[in-house]
Amino acid sequence: MAITWKEMQALQPKVMRLLQNSIERNRLAHAYLFEGRKGTGKLDAAFLLAKSFFCLEQKSEPCESCRNCQRITSGNHPDVHAVFPDGLSIKKGQIQLLQEEFAKTGLESQKKLYIISHADKMTTNAANSLLKFLEEPSNETIAILLTEQPHKLLDTIRSRCQVLSFQSLLPESIEKELIKQEISPSLAPILSNMTSSLSEALELSRNEQFAETRAKVIKLYEVLHQRKGHAFFYIQDQWMPFFKEKDHQQMGLDMLLFIYRDVLSIQIGHEDKIIFQDLFQILKQHALQSTQQRVTNQILAVLEAKKRLFSNVNAHSLMEHLVLMLQEG
Fold first, then answer.
1. pLDDT tens-digit map of 113-156
2. pLDDT tens digits for range 240-291
3. Which CATH number is associated with domain 207-328?
4. Are 19 and 166 in contact (CB under 8 A)?
5. Residue ranges per domain, the chain?
6. CB 63 within 8 A of CB 23
7. Are 133 and 143 in contact (CB under 8 A)?
8. Which of the listed residues 29, 59, 215, 301 has the most CB atoms within 10 Å of its CB?
9. Buried b / exposed e along 68-100 (16+ C-beta atoms within 10 A)
10. Which of 304, 223, 295, 224 is nearest to 265 (CA)?
11. What is the Cα 280 distance to its own chain's centre?
């Protein structure tokens, strides 16, 4: 589902305010560089700007219902073009095709807009071709370059663009958007803390393995604190057969870390910060029965396991050692 202008304003208020002011004053730049980490909404913002530029209602925010807005949403507006890497790079031929397209008269107006995603992946020849394009801007043409690595772009390209920096999304912002999209209130907090990308959080929410991972982690925590003698059996029989890849093991450790941080949050009076809200009563009981120092040691033990995970340590041995550390505190 396409994100709306108001939703993007909530996620990136500074960027959207700058764009809105430029639209209202009819002072849009001929070239923009949207830079920021993955998942910060750069591509969504680019298409929202395209809609505002072509919207038949001619307001600062796209109406989303006119023919132009709807065609941009569906990806078939004849004067809006998006370029993505072909394999590992954006090649000179892709930029040349774009230039040829823009040399033609606009099919419905003189307006044209193009978006280059991952602009830092342009080959040297492609970047030089784009530079020539940017040096001869048309009043009715807007270029939007997107990048996670602005330092890899030519200085001459960066200097011809108005740079807008997209901030990493706060977990609270992602959580609100997830709940709006009907993600369970028990899952939304953990999803929003697993990634700074709204799109990645939504992907995880649809992933059956993610829900199973959460269940396995909760079970490990319960075994550690309620059936201590069974913890090593649980690691051998349940944990290791499920967590086969290191990336998946890292996800499990991240979730376990969140649980112990929740316990510490309860101890220091920050109950509103808890991620595993559905475990509140169990976590509160643990918080009352333990000291802040012990819980801090347990957090440090999980952090150390995360650090050692990608060294040449046997994963089974690592988890058994972690179980010992968590039970000792």
1. 999 999 999 999 999 999 988 887 777 889 999 999 999 999 99
2. 999 999 999 999 999 999 999 999 999 999 998 899 988 999 999 999 999 9
3. 1.20.272
4. no
5. 5-168, 207-328
6. no
7. yes
8. 301
9. bbebbbeeebebbbbbebeeeebbbebbeebee
10. 295
11. 27
Cβ proximity of 114 and 98 under 8 Å: yes
Neighbour order of strands in the sheet with 80-83: 80-83, 112-116, 141-147, 31-36, 162-166
Place of tokens 């913890």: 231
Q: What is the dihedral of CA 101, 105, 106, 108, to 10 degrees?
A: -140
